[in-house]
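A quick aside before the break. I want you to see a complete sequence-to-structure record at least once, exactly as it would be stored in a machine-readable document. Don't worry about memorizing anything.
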Amino acid sequence: MAKEKPGQQRAGTSSPDGVSAPAGTQAIGRALAVLRLLTEANGDLGILYIAQELGLKPGTAHRIVRALMLEGYVAQNPATDGYYLGSRAILIGQSAQRALGVDRALPLLERLHQETEESVNLVVREGEESVVLMRVQSKLPLRFEQYPGARFPLYSTASGKAMLSFSDDADEYLRGLPEQLDALTPNTLRTPDDLVRDLDAIRERGYSIDDEENVAGVRCVGAPVFDIDGQAHAAVVIQVPTVRMPFERIHELGPRMIELAKQVAHVVPPDHTVRRSLSQR
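That is the input. The structure line, written in tokens, reads:
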């Protein structure tokens, strides 16, 4: 089974979309960076790893972690001396899920998982990345393991392309791309022009396709979750190993993903959308 690991990030005072935070908030930014790293981790993390990933001195990382432990946001495994999210962080996550309506979306994702036996994600946009907000993992032996908090470029994922196709800042995003896009696999779209053509096709058919563009051996089908303004800052995606996803199945699942996206949009409160909570931070 293929696995992913958290990407390297640096503690700072900027939001995901690059907006600078007010002066004097460095300590808060660093503490939040530690929490983000632990959120994306698959297992306990040591102080040296945390410091390296965030570009901090070990002593600074240790002081931040200890402060978070005192408040219950981080806990320590006595067997490994590693750190993981504490109970208070879990309670905040559960409260946010209720406020965003995500808890009501979970049964919808589970229903499609039961029908297909495949992994199903609810994904949101943070700046130029797709972030997995909720996942129902396939139980089949051959699968791609992924966890909530995983981040990927918009241009290489079914979720990212679904959101870009129906976002009012798509042109701005495209203008900011380099002439040659970073290739995550041999199938990754290579130029902004390639992406423009793909976005046009997505608008035409209503669903997106990731043909091993983000992870080799994995195909995905996604659909945009529209907010009350007709914008897509969230998407639903089904993720399947290529051996179980011939092109015929892709186009069979496309309409099913569109329907799932409509159902998710219906249960998310219009005044507490993922758009306001994440994309416009």
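Two observations worth writing down. The radius of gyration is 19 Å. Residues 26-92 form a domain with the Arc Repressor Mutant, subunit A fold (CATH 1.10.10.10). We'll return to this after the break.
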